[in-house]
Amino acid sequence: ILILISNIIKINKSCKVFLVDFSCYKHPSTQMCTIKMFSYRVRVLRYFRMHLWNSSKVLLKMITNSCLEDARRDSEMVVFGVVDEILAKSGVEGKDIGLVIMNCCSFNLVPSLSAMIVNRYKLEQDTVSCNLGGMGCSAGL
């Protein structure tokens, strides 16, 4: 009887989640730089250490005054670019979305990035919006 009850609970608890589609942000060619340019920036900044790729979005100009608005603009460019692409690829409309989960380990805004998505794409008022901020990269979805 115990095994039967255990199996019934196990069957009822399983919830299948399907990946409809995914998208990765592709920055515009105006934000690409060569390894030579990147190496120069690394030497100039000294504290900037990361793995070199063939092309990477990097500092194309020296930052003299960084602010929250610049960080917000960069975040919007990436997040909205990905959402635009995923909606176009999947054919899903805003009215069909009931849940938005956003995971960003290093940047927390008010309003949150998930709320910005809900507002930008005019999602339904009852859309559940979850922003997993401040939990680091281990916030796994």
UniProtKB/TrEMBL annotation:
It comes from the Eukaryota. Residues 12-141 form the FAE domain. One of its GO terms (biological process) is fatty acid biosynthetic process. The keyword Transferase applies. It catalyses: a very-long-chain acyl-CoA + malonyl-CoA + H(+) = a very-long-chain 3-oxoacyl-CoA + CO2 + CoA. Keywords: Acyltransferase, Transferase. One of its GO terms (molecular function) is fatty acid elongase activity. One of its GO terms (cellular component) is membrane. The keyword Glycosyltransferase does not apply. This is FAE1_CUT1_RppA domain-containing protein. It comes from Cephalotus follicularis (Albany pitcher plant).
